[in-house]
């Protein structure tokens, strides 16, 4: 998906919500466990309940790899089930030498058919080169939303700025705002403000809303740009909204509430 | 495997060679392609040909994930085939928030049964916590052997030292030399010298010998400690030593030559 289509879809949906598809057998509604492929059945229900209010889906590979080969079958079925209109992010956080990175890129783009992959920038540009393709996106980790991220990411550089910002000056040259996004955690508002100043046009993938404590309003205050520039991910808060038989209703309600909030933000900022 | 057993196995084998199991259909001897599971057959031959001269195996997950679910079946069969005496490193270079990292740890330790996992330190300690278990090892990326690693890893910190060294001061506190190793590329000798000074007792996993240009003698000069302290990986140089039907002979010869060189180094340094 190119940037024009992405922005246009955000405007059509009046939403910039990404639903994290992180299925956990121990947390999903028990009635699904008797089906042949509970992981897929769960994801299918979540997609049906959320597709009108979201623009993207983000399966995290960890939840599928945990299940061995059958997990990857469920992942492929899930990705194939996502409507073609939606942006598909494979949350892989990979990074490896060129030869191995090439294998990952073939797997993620050719086999699974995703639009974007999350990547760690620590190994330098040749480790991400295989992920640069027409209409595909690399999403580079910058400031993550987990509690101990700062002990590494905020180490000061020789220019007396945090190291994530020093990394940004390098990694923003690896591609353009048309094929590169950055992961900027919702729990790091100060960082988000600084990063937005450094890369005004790039999209951010923002985890950390909901269970992890981030606020949608605050994130938008610091991260929004004239093309929206934000894809806000929510996983657990949405997909485990209820463990009842009618959990899809709860999932839909959660998504509708977020979508309405997003629509208002887009209107207030003259984006739609 | 605990550190005592590892050191003792190095002394018995008179070797500190790790064989990288990175099977690529396009590079393996053509006569294997007609078998039911060429990936496993290839690995099986490599293991048979190398097990007397090596102490560890390191499958890189990228090469298996590329093949979808069947690749993971081949990986599991491969790991089950490796002799129990040998140290098994899953080269995954993962790093994710606690909840996802837990899934990876369960997959790598419980499902596959490996001894060690390579991890990226960029997300901080909570992202690697699930990998800390009795007799298991985390192997943290520090200086990698790929050409553009330096553009990130050598950025200077406020203390006028490269950032990888600043990271090391933090990440060496996450565990001890009994459950933590560091990836230190063979092509980075200056860095290896500095890192060995900072962590005299830790084992290093050293990629980059052979095709990538690193020298075994030089690496040992800078990286060896009184317990050896080095696991030297070689992948392509060994496993693609020949594409003939009798390729296992070439693989054995390559391994024997490296083992003899290692035995001499261990003797010269009074380790055996």
For this structure, the quaternary state is: homodimer
CATH class descriptor of chain A: Alpha Beta
What share of the residues of chain A does DSSP label as strand, in percent? 15-25%
Secondary structure class of chain A reads: alpha/beta
Q: Describe the largest sheet of chain A.
A: 8 strands, parallel, barrel
Overall structural domain count of chain A:
1
CATH superfamily of chain A: Aldolase class I
Average of per-residue pLDDT values of chain A: 96
Largest interface (C-beta under 8 Å): A-B, 60 and 60 residues
Helix content of chain A: 40-55%
Shape of chain A: globular
Number of helices of chain A: 11
Describe it.
- 2 copies of one chain form a homodimer.
- The model of chain A has no long low-confidence stretch (mean pLDDT 96).
- Chain A has a single domain (3-268), classed as TIM Barrel (Alpha-Beta Barrel).
- Chain A has helices spanning 3-13, 38-50, 61-65, 69-81, 98-111, 150-153, 163-171, 189-198, 216-223, 236-239, 247-268, and strands spanning 17-21, 56-59, 87-94, 116-119, 137-143, 180-184, 203-206, 230-234.
- Chain A is of the alpha/beta class and 272 residues long.
- Chains A and B meet through helix 3, helix 4, strand 3, helix 5 and helix 6 of A and helix 3, helix 4, strand 3, helix 5 and helix 6 of B.
């Amino acid at each position: 998906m190119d940037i024009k289509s992405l922005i246009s879809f955000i405007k059509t949906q009046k939403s910039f919500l990404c639903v994290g598809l992180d299925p956990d057998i121990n947390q999903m509604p028990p009635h699904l466990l008797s089906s042949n492929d509970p992981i897929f059945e769960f994801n299918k229900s979540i997609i049906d309940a959320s597709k009108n209010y979201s623009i993207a889906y983000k399966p995290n590979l960890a939840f599928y790899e945990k299940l061995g080969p059958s997990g990857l079958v469920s992942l492929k079925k899930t990705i194939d089930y996502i409507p073609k209109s939606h942006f598909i992010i494979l949350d892989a956080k990979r990074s490896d030498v060129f030869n191995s990175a090439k294998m990952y890129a073939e797997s993620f783009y050719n086999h699974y058919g995703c639009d974007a992959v999350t990547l760690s920038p620590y190994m330098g540009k040749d480790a991400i080169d295989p992920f640069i393709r027409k209409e595909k996106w690399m999403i580079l980790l910058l400031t993550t939303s987990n509690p101990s991220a700062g002990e590494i990411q905020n180490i000061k550089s020789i220019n007396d700025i945090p190291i994530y910002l020093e990394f940004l000056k390098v990694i923003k040259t690896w591609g353009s705002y048309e094929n590169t996004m950055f992961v900027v955690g919702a729990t790091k508002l100060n960082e988000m403000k600084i990063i937005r100043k450094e890369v005004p046009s790039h999209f951010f993938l923002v985890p950390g809303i909901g269970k992890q404590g981030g606020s949608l309003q605050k994130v938008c205050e610091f991260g929004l740009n004239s093309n929206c520039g934000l894809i806000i991910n929510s996983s657990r808060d949405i997909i485990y909204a209820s463990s009842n038989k009618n959990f899809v209703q709860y999932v839909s309600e959660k998504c509708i509430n977020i979508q309405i909030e997003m629509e208002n933000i887009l209107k207030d900022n003259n984006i739609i």
